[in-house]
Structure formats: structure tokens, C-alpha cells
Design a protein that fits this description.
It holds the Pfam family ABC_tran. InterPro entries: AAA+_ATPase, ABC_transporter-like_ATP-bd, ABC_transporter-like_CS, BCAA_Transport_ATP-bd_LivF, P-loop_NTPase. Residues 5-235 form the ABC transporter domain. There is one protein chain. With 236 residues, this protein is an alpha/beta fold. The longest helix has 18 residues, at 168-185. It is 36% helix and 27% strand. The N and C termini lie far apart (35 Å). Bound molecules: adenosine-5'-triphosphate. Adenosine-5'-triphosphate is lined by residues 14, 17, 19, 37, 39-45.
């Protein structure tokens, strides 16, 4: 299997504060990888640096074997990378307009089909498509963000804590979507999460602790290791 994403020795952070220290990880095509880490471990910083929302201090990011470290987020999105975070849904646009934004670079006819496909998956959004996104509940707004990220049927989806603030029902819906997109379109996922429920669908797990990767392996291997207790409870 070839790598869709490879991050090599990436250091990154904010002015005057380094958060990530030489992080390396890779995700194969069609694989669901879960990045576990406690609050403040650097998960968001890692996803943002991968997409290019934050410019890394050093290290490299490869997509499909191409060095894209310096590419802007838009360029990466065009190459089939999607990014989901709790932000980004535009409250003053309708649900339909928000959804179409996720496929802004698709051809018109293609976009139409893909919008229809997403409405099949999210009948609630279809029903409310003319309403402003700002009128949705927090959970529905996140599902719109999810639909928008997935509409282009991306090769790789970077998801930042999809379960945060969601009811168990919505969490299950996210998990089903991940499974479905993996199966239907061969999408790979890198999902930053604190919710261990996502381990149920993880082919591969990374643990991020204090800006460093402290575990790489399968769920079974994770269960044998003490990486989680160290990351979450500071047991060393
Ligand atoms: P959480 O689940 O709390 O979002 P996380 O693992 O995603 O945690 P990050 O959000 O990447 O962690 O934060 C890592 C560190 O970087 C934290 O110490 C945080 O305070 C700091 N940080 C995050 N965003 C900024 C910013 N814009 N400017 C300065 N420091 C930041």
C-alpha cells in the first residue's frame, strides 16, 4: 500500500512557542488513522501544519509522494485533501450554499451529483437547505461542516475532534460516514480525537504527547502499551 500522507520530522508552533517536536507519521491510502492525545498535546497544531494553515518551522509534508510542505491549503484541497474542524461553517449563508462551497473546484454537473449524494446521507440538511446555517443547532452545524468536508469525496480527510460537543447519536453518524467513505471511495482519514470510541474504526493509531509521537501501531498493540495512560494521566 502506498502512502497518501507522510509527515517527516515536523516541528511547528506559534510565535515564540514550539508545540510539535520532530513529529513523523504516515498514513496509507484508504486507511483510517486515529491521532490520540490529551488536551494541549498538539493535535490541532499538527493538522493545521499538515494542511498549511500554520507554516511549519521545519520538517516536511508529502502527499502522494510529492513534497507539499510549502503549498497553501487551497492547493492541497485541490489535490484531494479535506479538512474538518468545528469552525468554518458560515452562519450567514444557507445550508445549501455552505455545502456547495465544499466542492467549489468541482465541475458544475459533478457538483450537482455530489450535493445530491450528500443530501441522501444527511436528509435533515436537505430539508433545511434554504435556511441559514446559523439557525442550526451546534450538532447539526458540525454535521454540515462534515458534509462540506466530504462532498468532494477526498483522498485524505483530516478531521479535528469530530466528536467534540456531539451527542452519541451524532458520534455514531460520524463513525458510519468514515466507514462508508473508506469503503465507497477509498478515502483515508487522519482523525485527531480524545474519544476512544474512534479506536473501533482505527486501522492505525498514533499517540501524541507533549508535541511528540509516543506510540505508533495498531489498536491491539496500543492495548499492550502504556502510551495512553502516559498521555492522559501523566503516568511515567
Ligand atoms: P485541544 O484538544 O485542547 O485542542 P490539541 O491537542 O489540539 O488540544 P493544540 O490546540 O494543538 O492541542 O495546542 C497545543 C498547544 O499550543 C497548547 O499549549 C495551546 O495552548 C497552544 N496554542 C494553540 N493555539 C495557539 C495559538 N493560536 N497561539 C499560541 N498558542 C497556541
Amino acid at each position: 500500500m502506498s502512502e497518501i500522507l507522510s509527515i517527516q520530522s515536523l516541528s511547528s508552533g506559534y510565535e515564540g512557542m514550539q508545540v510539535l517536536n520532530r513529529v513523523s507519521l504516515s498514513v496509507d491510502q484508504g486507511v483510517t488513522a486515529v491521532l490520540l492525545g490529551a488536551n494541549g498535546a498538539g493535535k490541532t497544531t499538527l493538522l493545521k501544519s499538515t494542511l498549511g494553515i500554520i507554516s511549519p518551522m521545519s520538517g516536511e509534508v508529502f502527499i502522494d509522494g510529492n513534497n507539499v510542505t510549502k503549498d497553501k491549503p487551497e492547493a492541497k484541497i485541490r489535490k484531494g485533501i479535506a479538512y474538518f474542524s468545528e469552525f468554518g461553517v458560515l452562519p450567514n449563508l444557507s445550508i445549501h450554499e455552505n455545502l456547495k462551497l465544499g466542492g467549489f473546484f468541482l465541475h458544475h454537473s459533478d457538483l450537482k451529483d455530489k450535493v445530491a449524494y450528500m443530501y441522501e446521507k444527511f436528509p435533515d440538511l436537505k430539508e433545511k437547505r434554504k435556511e441559514l446555517a446559523g439557525s442550526l443547532s451546534g450538532g447539526q452545524r458540525k454535521m454540515l461542516g462534515m458534509a462540506r468536508a466530504l462532498i468532494s469525496q477526498p483522498k485524505l480527510v483530516l478531521m479535528d475532534e469530530p466528536s467534540a460537543g456531539l451527542s452519541p447519536l451524532f458520534v455514531n453518524q460520524v463513525i458510519s460516514l468514515v466507514k462508508e467513505f473508506k469503503k465507497e471511495f477509498g478515502s483515508a482519514f487522519l482523525i485527531a480525537e480524545q474519544n476512544v470510541k474512534f479506536l473501533d474504526i482505527a486501522d492505525h493509531v498514533f499517540v501524541l504527547d507533549g508535541g511528540e509521537i509516543t506510540f505508533t501501531g495498531t489498536v491491539a498493540e496500543l492495548q499492550e502499551s502504556d502510551a495512553i495512560s502516559k498521555a492522559y494521566f501523566g503516568v511515567h
